[in-house]
Design a protein that fits this description.
This protein is of the alpha/beta class. The protein is built from 19 helices and ten strands. The chain starts with 7 loop residues before the first helix and ends with a helix.
């Protein structure tokens, strides 16, 4: 039975935006609004309350204007009436709206500063907590990148659309109530053509989001190509090989492909709404003129003034409301993505990394482990069993695609096997709390992160600084000269874009090695850790690691078989299975695959 936390059936709804029903998206949009409220309850309540009050100012002014007209007419007829009270009421409403604006601006800024980052922070955290193997599944990877890259802009769009919804629906409803006070038939004349327009706006917004969903890949490619022109590393090749015209052409292809389709979607949506709105306005004003001129509804000068003002106000508000509903339909797709993404199990969730100082070495045991990447059918690891005694240095070798890095990630608990078990001592690695597992292990991968931070932060992050340990790993990684030559020593920023310095590939790898050594983990994994170094420097680095790994279990992957001679034991991997197992001398006595690989590589150095 599979122990993997996901199946393709379970994540498929997240991958198929176009199949999600619109009501489900709208519920997700409402849910996301509530998440913003939960993150900033006081500012959000204030922002919403002020929005409602500002919206009520419009119908209040219409209501006051009707009384003002009545008072003026009465005064003109020679009767006792005081229009100044109603004029004062209208002026107070205008002043109140202006006085409420700073409060709304403050609360809105608080939501942008705290609410949006809170939700975006949850998305970033969940991106590091989901099953790592899913990121190898292209469809899921595209969704993850789309959510991460569009989170900031889309969250602002969600809030803006909700603001427009409140800002236009409240005064619209207020104006409707005033019209209803004169006659309910006028309300029907107003809303009969408006309701299908709002439904169409919501549907068109959904179409716009589906187009964005389908354009994820083209947008990412266009953004990547554009970023190469301002990248220091790419600038050399662009100039040397004359790639500018070719890259600009490819950028235009991907960029214009997305813009052309989106322009068509937006134009069609706008045309439908404009034609519908024009028909609605003609119908409504026709009914209004008929009511006034036919005497079907008894009206006076004040009623006519209110009706004219209300219908003009409602025309503008209904158009703005359509745009808000269209945006809600658009961003409801994003909200649906967010809700589904945050609902995925947090496989790697952890509170903090615990101390390693008292950890005891334990054997690593793999029992009939199988693993297949999501979306594929070929086993990358096939019924593999292996025991690594505590403190042993194990080298894993094999040709490209043999499954070496996948096996290493399984041992580190980064991937979960489809079946079988991986034990640390007598505990299944998946049953060990993530924080404890992180404290047990350290690794240097072939592709490692280069953080735009100081040298010391690149080594020690996220642990507190320990000068004794720091000096130890600087010596072991042979970083002493580099630290001395750096302008600000360990405080030097390792990013030329931020005014710091750049490092060579080999220097960055020494930083990555020091980062792994600083953790003082009991299990150390090295996946092509010195690929950017020359062979002599590589052997020197590994010898340094060999000196400090006497009380650790070390797992090494290297294409340079000269490194494997320093290992206690070597296993050869072919098609996800172990085909050879022994020391270097033992395997060289055979005429099998390891001896052939060794002989082929050794010819280059003769």
């Amino acid at each position: 039975m599979s122990s993997a936390p996901y199946t393709l059936d379970r994540i498929q709804p997240l991958l198929e935006e176009e199949r999600r029903p619109l009501p489900s998206r709208i519920r997700a949009y409402s849910w996301l609004i509530l998440q913003l409220r939960s993150a900033t309850p006081l500012p959000f309540t204030c922002w919403l309350g002020v929005g409602v009050l500002q919206g009520l100012m419009v119908p209040f002014q219409l209501w006051a204007s009707s009384h003002l007209v009545n008072a003026v007419q009465t005064r003109m007829d020679g009767q006792d009436a005081n229009p100044w009270w109603w004029a004062l009421a209208m002026a107070s409403a205008l002043a109140g709206g202006r006085l409420l604006a700073p409060m709304k601006n403050w609360s809105e800024a608080a939501i942008y500063e705290r609410g949006l980052p809170a939700v975006e922070g949850r998305l970033l955290a969940r991106a590091t907590e989901v099953d790592l193997a899913l990121l190898e599944y292209q469809a899921f990877y595209e969704v993850t990148r789309r959510i991460a890259e569009q989170a900031d802009q889309s969250l602002k769009g969600v809030l803006k659309a909700f603001n427009e919804l409140i800002g236009n629906s409240i005064p619209l409803l207020g104006a409707v109530l005033i019209i209803a006070h004169i006659d309910w038939l006028l309300v029907l004349a107003l809303f009969l053509p408006l309701l299908p327009l709002l439904a169409e706006a919501l549907r068109q917004g959904g179409f716009v989001w589906e187009a964005l969903h389908q354009q994820t890949r083209d947008r990412r490619i266009a953004h990547y190509i554009a970023s190469r022109f301002s990248d220091r590393q790419s600038a050399k090749e662009i100039r040397l090989f004359g790639l500018a015209d070719e890259l600009i052409g490819r950028w235009e292809t991907h960029f214009m492909a997305t813009r052309k389709e989106m322009r068509g979607k937006v134009t069609r949506a706008s045309l439908r709404l404009q034609l519908g709105g024009t028909f609605s306005d003609i119908f409504s004003y026709g009914v209004l003129i008929w009511v006034i001129t036919s005497g079907f509804v008894e009206t006076n000068a004040a009623d006519i003034t209110v009706l004219m003002g209300a219908f003009m106000t409602i025309g503008n508000l209904s158009f703005n409301l359509q745009q808000a509903i269209l945006d809600i339909g658009k961003y409801s797709g994003f909200a649906s993505d967010v809700r589904m993404f945050l609902a995925l199990p947090a496989v790697f969730a952890t509170d903090k990394v615990t101390s390693l100082s008292e950890r005891l070495l334990t054997p690593i045991v793999l029992e009939h482990v199988n693993f297949t990447y999501p979306g594929t059918t070929t086993k990358v690891i096939d019924d593999l069993s292996l025991t690594i005694p505590p403190g042993q240095t194990l080298a894993i070798v094999g040709e490209n695609g043999a499954g070496k890095t996948t096996l290493l990630k399984l041992i580190l608990g980064l991937y979960r096997p489809d079946s079988g078990r991986i034990l640390l001592g007598d505990r299944d690695i998946q049953d060990i709390p993530v924080a404890e597992r992180q404290a047990l292990m350290a690794a240097v991968f072939q592709t490692f992160s280069r953080y735009p931070e100081s040298m010391i932060e690149n080594i020690t992050m996220p642990r507190n600084r320990d000068d004794v340990e720091l000096n130890r790993v600087i010596q072991e990684a042979d970083l002493g000269h580099m630290v001395e030559d750096a302008p600000e020593g360990l405080k030097t920023i390792l990013s030329p874009d931020l005014g710091g310095i750049d490092l060579s590939g080999g220097q960055w790898q020494r930083i990555a090695i020091a980062r792994a050594g600083y953790r003082n983990a009991t299990i150390l994994a090295l996946d092509e850790p010195t690929a950017a170094l020359d062979p002599l420097a590589e052997v020197d680095i590994f010898k340094r690691f060999a000196q400090i790994s006497s009380d650790r279990t070390t797992i090494l992957i290297s294409h340079r078989l000269g490194m494997t001679r320093l290992a206690d034991r070597i296993v050869v991997l072919e098609h996800g299975k172990i085909t050879e197992d022994g020391s270097h001398n033992e395997l060289m006595r055979n005429t099998a695959h390891y001896a052939e690989l060794w002989e082929m590589q050794s010819r280059w150095y003769r």
